[in-house]
Amino acid sequence: MCDILKIDRKLRGKLGKIYAVGVGPGSPKYVTGIVKEIIQDSDIVIGYRYTLKTIRDLLPGKEVHEITMNNQEDSYQKILPVLGNRSLVIPFTGDVNFSESEVVDRLIEVFGKVEIIPGLSSIQIAASKAQIPLDKSKVITLHVTTSIEEKKLELQKALIDGYSVILVPRPWPKQPEKHFMPSEIAIYLKRNNFQTEDMKVHVYEALTTEDETSFVGSVKDLEDKEFSDLSVMVFNQTELDSYMNYRWQWEH
Q1: Which of 42, 53, 184, 210 has its CA 20 to 30 A from that of 203?
Q2: What ranges do the domains of the chain cover?
Q3: pLDDT digit string, tens, across residues 192-220
Q4: Domain 122-235 maps to which CATH number in 3.40.190.10, 2.40.50.180, 3.20.20.80, 3.30.950.10?
């Protein structure tokens, strides 16, 4: 094990630049200028199919590796000893700093120094469409592999406290006990004594793409409805509160 660690450190000390970048929710229009430049100047790109589709016009001439959840670790380990001083980009859908910490932490473990470049997240787009200010909302992601029981309680508390909530649900169809999408969330809230028929909710799918859809209704209406793994929920409890309510601050 010590020898392996020494080899890894030696390799990582000679590597070219490694970037983890956010490429936005899905439309190429939402890829930032700096991210475009980094991808265009890179040698190797490793990413998921949906993410690579977003930046496909930037990939000609690159060495491209399409990965899945099942083979991403093998791909990282195979590229490490042959990367040399070439630059590597790992693109993430949305913002690399949101819902991706488990993967980013692993990239740092494997490659050492990783430069992180943020991108626009679907939660920002959803907040804008629902006209929900982020500074008056709670943002919760259930898109993790660890237990979400504490996050469920966090959701309850935020709603009880009157906050709007922007929520990324958890798709896990192969393990139904971990699957926690809008239908399951609606049933969960009802079982915990929320009046779901009176709670306003938006559900957005595939934001910014040609496949974008939106649902607006009550939380109760979500029961038994199916949504894709590209869904974002917005629980709308916002009331208008402009600066005109605080004129005493500047008027004398």
Answers
A1: 53
A2: 2-117, 122-235
A3: 999 999 999 999 999 999 999 999 999 99
A4: 3.30.950.10
